[in-house]
Write a structure and sequence with these properties.
By secondary structure, this protein is α/β, with parallel strands linked by helices. It folds into two domains: 232 residues, 3-Layer(aba) Sandwich (Rossmann fold), CATH 3.40.50.620; 84 residues, Tyrosyl-Transfer RNA Synthetase, CATH 1.10.240. Helix content is 51%, strand content 9%. Strands 1-2-7-6-3-4-5 form a seven-stranded mixed β-sheet. Strand 3, helix 4 and strand 4 form a beta-alpha-beta unit. Helix 1 runs parallel beside helix 3, helix 5 packs across helix 6 and helix 12 packs antiparallel against helix 16. The radius of gyration is 21 Å and the shape is globular. The two termini are 29 Å apart.
Length: 358
């Protein structure tokens, strides 16, 4: 993959006639595969579709889960692009021995409401559970499976002899939505529409395999745009865990819970004492509240100012945490209000197999 350049960001702004998303401006989405080729096609008047997804293993999404969805929502709006969202309820059953198939299927629908709350256009968005949509995907899955040997799959994904055969076969299921023929109804029968996949960098292996088989199946290679990882509250050494509530802020948290988690658990790059902080300032590279502001504070100038003042010792850790708490309470409050408006009827419409508007 290649780094996204300032020239590419400027080109995206020119083509979409709007300012680039803050995650592009700040290098959160930082690398790509074949983005230039996709923009060339778009500039010549060719439409592309977006593909992203979620493995439904927990009831609520945390802030890190929002990255691909908020960014994809911006892309959908900026490029006026149709979108398919894959919910891999089959994968979570195969890879998590604690979950039943009924539970992963239920979680797919619960998570879909959070995804819809990110602001997608219902006329341009098709959300599907693998278990529901499998009969439309299966012909493509089989074609992909025949192109990938067990040795290749083991080399890419690290499968061992004790992995169940469902796990070994699954990569083809995640690859499948990269090809427009998987969506004969939503994409109106197109077999040539290019695909752009915004995802976290750890998903790249799936799509390297996909890009490898694409020409053999007669399709364009999907383009990719990768995001960095979102840090857990504990900072760089920690890992965000859906099972440890203290490591992350959830879109279901109350304002009081957000305040408590940031104040209690967010790793600080500030100094031990007030005097030292005034003298030495904070290390904003490791300070989690400042890093979270880089993700969620829209105003570039204000972010720069906070960074300068915090590094210089003019701002204290508690003050930066207070700014972050306000930003996150507003973000999560807005999300919860949008989710509350997602009725079962709205959900059913997003998940109905239908032609998309593009």
């Amino acid at each position: 993959s290649r780094h996204i350049t300032e020239d590419q960001i400027a080109r995206i702004e020119r083509l979409t006639n709007r300012r680039a998303h803050r995650w592009l401006r700040r290098g959160v989405f930082f690398s790509h595969r074949d983005l230039t080729q996709l923009l060339d096609l778009y500039e010549r008047g060719e439409k592309f579709y977006l593909y992203t997804g979620r493995g439904p293993s927990s009831e609520a999404l945390h802030l890190g889960h929002l990255l691909p969805f908020h960014f994809t929502q911006y892309l959908q709006e900026a490029f006026n692009a149709p979108l398919v969202v894959q919910l891999t309820d089959d994968e979570k059953f195969l890879f998590n021995d604690k979950l039943t198939l009924e539970e992963t299927h239920r979680l797919a629908y619960a998570n879909a409401k959070d995804i819809i709350a990110c602001g997608f256009d219902p006329t341009k968005t098709f959300i599907f559970s693998d278990l529901d949509y499998i009969q439309h995907m299966y012909p493509m899955i089989v074609k992909i499976q025949r192109c990938v040997t067990f040795n290749q799959a083991r080399g890419i994904f690290g499968f061992t002899d004790s992995d169940n055969i469902g796990r070994q076969a699954f990569p083809a299921v995640q690859a499948c939505p990269s090809f427009p023929a998987t969506f004969p109804v939503p994409l109106k029968g197109s077999r040539t529409m290019p695909c752009l996949i915004p995802c976290a960098i750890d998903q790249d292996a799936y799509f390297r395999m996909t890009r490898d088989v694409a020409p053999r199946l007669g399709f364009k290679k999907p383009s990719l745009i990768h995001s960095k990882f979102f840090p857990p509250l504990q900072g760089k050494g920690g890992k965000m865990s859906a099972s440890m509530a203290s490591t992350s802020i959830y879109v279901s948290d109350t304002a009081a819970q957000i305040k408590k988690k940031v104040n209690k658990y967010a790793f600080s790059g500030g100094q031990e004492t007030l005097e030292l902080q005034r003298e030495l300032g904070a290390n904003i590279e490791v300070d989690v509240p400042y890093q979270y502001l880089r993700f969620f504070l829209e105003d570039d100038e204000r972010l720069e100012q906070i960074g300068r003042d915090y590094k210089a010792g003019k701002l204290l850790s508690g003050e930066v945490k207070a700014i972050l708490i306000e930003v996150l309470q507003e973000l999560v409050g807005t999300h919860q209000a949008r989710k509350a408006a997602v009725t079962d009827e709205v959900l059913a419409e997003f998940m109905r197999v239908r032609e998309l508007d593009f």
